Amino acid sequence: MDRTTKITQFIEERCLVEFGTDVTPQDDLFKVGVLDSFGYVQLMAFLEQEFALQIDHEDMLTNVLVSLESIDGYVAAKLAR
């Protein structure tokens, strides 16, 4: 399973939404009510564990990832380093 699919499945299962039906990969997940602050922290923990990333608190707070596209791009950039 590829990176984007893993992230998509996590959000869909945890937040009970379906990309393409309920929301798009470009939607602001906070504004459409999919994510709240607790869900965001859970998502960051998942990304760290699943992809063996180190996400520091400053990065998490200053670069708030609001869409599936931005989350996936962030993970891709971190993995490329």
TrEMBL record:
- InterPro entries, A to Z: ACP-like_sf, PP-bd_ACP
Q: Which domain of life is it from?
A: Bacteria
Per UniProt, residues of the Carrier domain are: 1-79
Name it: Acyl carrier protein
Upper classification of the source organism reads: Bacteria, Bacillati, Actinomycetota, Actinomycetes, Pseudonocardiales
